[in-house]
Write a structure and sequence with these properties.
By secondary structure, the protein is an all-beta fold. 3% of the residues lie in helices and 39% in strands. The strands form 4 sheets. A 5-stranded mixed β-sheet has the order 4-10-9-6-7, with no helix packed on it. The chain has a 3-stranded antiparallel β-sheet with strand order 3-5-8, with no helix packed on it. The longest helix has 6 residues.
Length: 215
């Protein structure tokens, strides 16, 4: 079997866009994956806004027979020791194992869910894990589940990054606004820790050709 997304229209509303813009309040009353679509009078799609609502619910017919597991993290970057919160959408109810992995397993946690969509949490280790890592979920179908023709094991993986402020040096550079040809330019810098710093002077025209913008 191959899983394919199936979209169901929920409501249609006329939209008038004022010159100052339009503020849209997202409907978060029901867990699941939703989207707002904007069309013009001829039916041409002009914009699309996708979002996910986390919560406990039975989301039937959201996943097909290959028993894939959907994981939606609350954000993409976490700090060491922080708790990761994420939404798990499975094709059936059951129990599973959550692991935080990179070159090995750094944290693990068992959980059970009596709904097909649930919110789970796991805490990152305070030390020993930096850079990028993955949340992996292995989920086993409840023996009493009615989904007897679906694979009893489903799994999913979601990547995330770990804040590396402990390895980052903050550098501030003060420079003159204008330097005439033949003059010596003086620069001052300040770093949050002892560092080796390289200063580059680059022609502004080259940056404009490359469409470079300062961070």
């Amino acid at each position: 079997y191959e899983s394919r997304r199936r979209e169901i229209g929920l409501s249609d509303t006329a939209l008038t866009l004022p010159a100052a813009g339009h503020k849209l309040a997202l409907d978060a009353s029901t867990p699941g994956s939703f989207a707002y679509l904007v069309f013009d009078a001829s039916g041409q799609q002009l914009a699309r806004l996708d979002y996910t609502v986390a919560g406990e619910a039975n989301l039937s017919a959201r996943l097909e027979k290959n028993a894939e597991l959907q994981i939606a993290l609350s954000k993409k970057d976490y700090a060491p020791g922080e708790e990761i919160e994420f939404q798990v959408t499975a094709p059936y109810t059951g129990a599973g194992l959550i692991t935080v992995e990179r070159d090995k397993v750094y944290a693990w946690k068992w959980f059970s869910a009596d709904t097909t969509a649930s919110t789970q949490r796991i805490t990152l280790p305070a030390e020993g894990l930096e850079g990028n890592a993955y949340v992996s979920v292995s989920f086993v179908r409840d023996p009493g589940s009615a989904e007897i023709y679906t694979s009893p094991l489903s799994y999913g993986v979601a990547p995330f990054s770990i804040n590396v402020d402990a390895r980052r040096s903050k550098v501030d550079v003060a420079l003159p606004t204008r330097v005439k040809p033949g003059e010596t330019a003086s620069f001052r810098y300040k770093a949050s820790r002892p560092s080796k710093i390289v200063l580059f002077a680059v022609d502004e025209g080259i940056l404009q050709v490359a469409r470079y913008t300062s961070p």
